[in-house]
Amino acid sequence: MPDLRRDPIVGRWVIITTERSGRPHDFIPVQAVRHLATTLCPFCPGQERLTPKEIMAYRLQPLEANGPNWTVRVVPNKFPALQVEGDLDRQGLGLYDRMNAIGAHEVIIETPNHTDSLADMPTKRIEDVLWAYRDRMLDLKKDIRFRYILIFKNHGGPAGATLEHSHSQLIALPIIPTSVQEELDGCRIHYIQKERCIYCDILRQDLSDGGRIVAENSEFLCVTPYAPRFPFEMWILPKRHAAYFEESQKLQFESLAPILSETLRRMDRVLAKPSYNFILHSSPLHEKAGDFYHWHIEIIPKLTQVAGFEWGTGFYINPVAPEESAKFLREAVI
Ligand SMILES: [Zn+2]
Ligand SMILES: [Zn+2]
Ligand SMILES: [Zn+2]
């Protein structure tokens, strides 16, 4: 059973997964994507037996579970960072806090086509992927052990992907992660002072400034943030205030799919198809954050390394001004 341990000084939790690896030679400096033939790829149709039994799928007739004909398929991660069965068993060991690393770790296979990337997919298919995120979040929300659900995507080896077949991942956690807690605290303080959501204020200001806008449609805005940690970091925000991604409706998904696609294609054009991470930050599950938190997607192309200075200080050195990167992205011909 993996262990969740809390650092007693800064309160940060870590997951210790002794079962996954552990021998020093198991660690390779840079993760490489395994290029598998489609006949060996566990995410390709016809190879459904190579994954754990599916949790959910959208498929055309015949509707046979674990058969082919699917458009989006969700399966448990074969090498989960957290385990779904069991009790949290919170313990204090003297000074230290620990609990069992209970959680869900799922893989959303975004397309049956081995070579498609999210950026190349028709927007209707991207919409299906977004619906799958929502369906899984609504289902896992019923489990009272979980306090946060993170959806993220690693695209390309340097960004942490190990299989090239396009997929994203979902992790349900029994604690609120530190980076989300920091956002939540900032949002709460702004709300107490001004009775406004800070992300709504950012939207208003950046829409009128215009200098950091990458793309826009009736429901969403994509901007480079004012103080980005990484070059070409981008945020996609719903224009209407909303704390919970999973409460989005048809209109939101119909508008999010094209702006996500456009953003990725602009990034691919300007940066020559980089590796990237995207993360979906939605409100914690049982927190009454509806008034002050605002869900968003952060997209971070993998262009720089986090090194000693960043680790030592929490400062990030970003060689590209967000106004400059936004201009490149906005003006790219796609
Ligand atoms: Zn494949
Ligand atoms: Zn808001
Ligand atoms: Zn965020």
Number of DSSP helical runs: 6
The profile of the biggest β sheet is: 10 strands, antiparallel
- Share of helical residues: 25-40%
Quantity of strands, as a count: 14
From the N-terminal CA to the C-terminal CA, the straight-line distance is: 48 Å
Compute the average pLDDT. Answer: 93
Summarize the helix and strand pattern as letters: EEEEEEEHEEHHEEEHEEHH
Strand order of the largest sheet: 3-4-7-9-8-13-14-12-11-10
Description:
The chain is of the alpha+beta class. Helix content is 25%, strand content 22%. A ten-stranded antiparallel β-sheet has the order 3-4-7-9-8-13-14-12-11-10, with helices on both faces. The model has no long low-confidence stretch (mean pLDDT 93). The structure holds zinc ion (3 copies). The site of one zinc ion has 4 residues, from β14.
Topology:
Blueprint: E1 3-6, E2 13-16, E3 56-59, E4 70-76, E5 91-93, E6 96-100, E7 104-109, H1 123-140, E8 148-155, E9 167-173, H2 178-194, H3 198-209, E10 213-216, E11 220-223, E12 234-238, H4 250-271, E13 276-281, E14 296-301, H5 308-313, H6 322-331
Antiparallel strand pairs: 1-2, 1-6, 3-4, 4-7, 5-6, 7-9, 8-9, 8-13, 10-11, 11-12, 12-14, 13-14
The protein binds zinc ion (3 copies).
Summarize the structure.
This protein has 334 residues and is of the alpha+beta class. The chain is built from six helices and 14 strands.
Structural descriptors:
single chain, 334 residues, alpha+beta, 14 strands, globular, binds zinc ion
